[in-house]
Amino acid sequence: MSDVLKKISEPTLRVVGYVVLVVMCMYILTPLLWLLLTAFDPEGGPYLKLPKSITLDNFVMLFIGKPIKGRAGAAHPFYMNVWLKNSFFIASVVLVIIIITASMAAYALSRLDFTGKSLLMTFILLIGFMPSMAKILPLFKLCLMFGFIDNLFGVAVVIASSLLPTQIWILKGFFDSIPRELEEQAWVCGCGYLSTLMRVVLPVAGPGIAVIALLSFLGAWGSFTIPLILIRSEDLYPVSLGIASVFIHNPGEIGLAVDYGPLCALSIVYALPSLAIYYLTRKYLMQIKVGKMEVR
Amino acid sequence: MSVVEVQLEGVTKRFGNVVAVNDLTLKIKDKEFMVLLGPSGCGKTTTLRLIAGLEKVTKGRIFFKDEVVDDGETIFIPPQKRNVSMVFQSYALFPHMNVFENIAFPARIKKLPNREVKKRVYELADLLRIKDLLNRKPHELSGGQQQRVALARALMIEPSVLLLDEPLANLDAKLRVYMRAELKRIQKEFSCTTVYVTHDQIEAMSMADRITVLNMGKLQQVGTPDELYDKPSNLFVAGFIGSPPMNIIECTLVGTKYLDFGSFKLKIPEDWAEVLYREELVFGIRPQDILVSKSKRDGAVNFYVYVSEPLGDRIILTLVKDDMMIKALADKSTRVNMREEVWVIFNLEKAHIFDKKTGKLII
Amino acid sequence: MSLLRYLKRYSSEIILASFLVPALVLLLIFQLIPTIWTIWFSFTDMALIGKKLIHPSFIGLKNYVDMLNDSIFWQSMKVTFEYCLASLVLRFILGLLAALYLTSKMFRGKTILAAIFLLPYIIPGAIHPYVWISMLDTRYGTLNRILLFFGLTPQSWVYKRAMESVVMINSWAGYALAMLILSSAITSIPKEFYEVADIYGASRWQKFSKITLPLIKYPVILSLVLIFKEDIDDFTYVYMFTEGGPHYRTELLSLYAYHKAFAYFELGYGCAVGVIIAIIVFVLTLAQLKLGGV
Question: Residue B228 in 3-state DSSP?
């Protein structure tokens, strides 16, 4: 391998690199290109083509809740604004819960030294490893007890608990890289533990907070299984369930008898908040340090 | 100013099996500039952190004035409530705050009125010559500037004790000398009890009211710089204080008149013989107290020049005789070549004799 | 009395330890308890309908014994193995490649590249299957049109090549995880290491194999663990595309657990399959972490 690579000169390597890059970008972008084109196409279908004319009807349809004249529309009406509102509610509650609980836990894990700490870390990681499908029924029963069925707040709590392990690990990595002296300085200046966390550690760990904010937002915004189990009434559907209610008739029959225009428009509207959050936090994404994974 | 004296009573600190501080008893007087001096790993920083409350003692007690702040068992006053100030070696400036907010931080925690805070920050900035930097972020400052900001922050509230952990270690040589004097001046101006940790004996000598020498967690000697220099209580202190370090040569007492160095013998003053109770001894003499001349003199011992290091005003000579090697300070006019023969006279009035077995000072 | 004193002396540590409580409470209630409950269910003949839902009886290891003789279980075991292995390799290689592009000095436009690479990860998972419809459609799908363009035979992706399709979607959607972890790790390697290597005239491959790879060993293992966990757990794509068919050829273990529990109403059996998945995950995770010397 090394001999072969040595013989390849720098320019050749560069060319090969670019070719692979282009292929990769095509793999990534072609499906998304279809999404973008079809969203503005009055008569789009499950194939890539340039629209003959451009229309915003697909987007309008999502929000007025009924098909536009002359268009087939979907089997079920859209309640896009309701779904978006629900999704936003869930995502923001998850965000708040995760940032508070994960940062407190990660801070304690980062700064406390006690026997069995690595055991606790492994436990936290593994606890999230139980397949979610296997937990459905107990989870349902539990949520029934807590009154979390048909309760957006309850859904958010459950989602937060499922996202928590990874976020704690990531945040601990960030906290570990903050010099202890900063906190000790704050203590000497009279700061209590909570106020040290708020005034010094969190601001310094800003990138870490941004990363877990992004990851937990993405997780909550896109979550499908947990709302599927816990939400019964249609006016509490988040977008993920909304899509399914409109476009999936039976499992395994995706893509049959669907108006692709609104589907793509919906997908784009659905993806926009995620993209916005990514845009805000993109600077910090490359600084993730999970647990002990910083280079040793 | 609520300045206090700090007292450590039989303080021991263990980290697992490692004893960082071993049975240390020490009294730091009110308004005193106390320097903790020792090689790295001697427990000086741990001692400082114990005083700050960043570590808990394993055994022993620490007093602030009459109040016990840590007794190793039930009482532990956390750092937040000890009213100490600390400057860390890394300065620990908060990277997300500008200089002003960094300095004001302790006052903000104590919720002092904004007007007072502002006034105080400007006073300190003036005093430490960082007035132009108040709006900058720490990463835009040089090492020396960061150090002064950290110091200003430490002086923002009036601390019971000011703790400084090698604050000059990260500065370049020139700035270090400048800040040495500056720090001393500021300490006197604020007249607050100060504990200063360093491994640099020159820093310690030039700044301290008193110095505590530590080694391997054990107290070696406490005293004024002069006491430590003139009367080192044991071999460790003798070797650690002074630059270039004291020459330490093993010897044996022959009868009551001579010290036998193997390749030569030295006649000792008569009053020495009375106190020398042991034959196995260590002879210590500072390079300054060794007279080197090119011509043979009475009572002089011949050595050969091994290396000569000119310092500008003086020359450090490394001299050998058989397997013995000593350092001497010579006048800059002493021009010698390598391997040249020179004649050496030891100024026995300034020499010390230590017990080889215990390392304790005898004379 | 002495306990009280002890508590007082260590009050600051206790305050700090109490910071763990909210997260641990959440994890215990909504993760650990359902897990333990599931394990209990797996020893019962609980069913989704009838009185067995309310009054299941304890049947010991019967579900697990049944599993040994269940050909569909072994079939889905095989399917899961194929799926996980293929996904693991693809997701990891794509992720590593993307990470190298993002960290290499040879290529420009990092910000745009990073945004492109992250797009599939950012877009909500519920959309992924729809997005791929246009690629995989037999008659007009982009993939088949590309094959035709190069003179190759078009495939029936969704039906005959179901497994390949699902792996393709999964890798597309999931490679960014490894990319994020690995590129973060690679950027944190001090430049000096490479400069030293340059001084000694190391080749590009030597620099990668002798410096980069050993230094990112732990992140590599971590990303493998996370990828594996996601793949074995998640059946959204097979669920939406193939429903496990044709002939159980894409019946992943997780989907089988779901089917057993909710389509055949054998809840106890479904839970038992879930427990098996969990055991596989635990064992492999611990093995990987151990192997990595973590």
Answer: helix
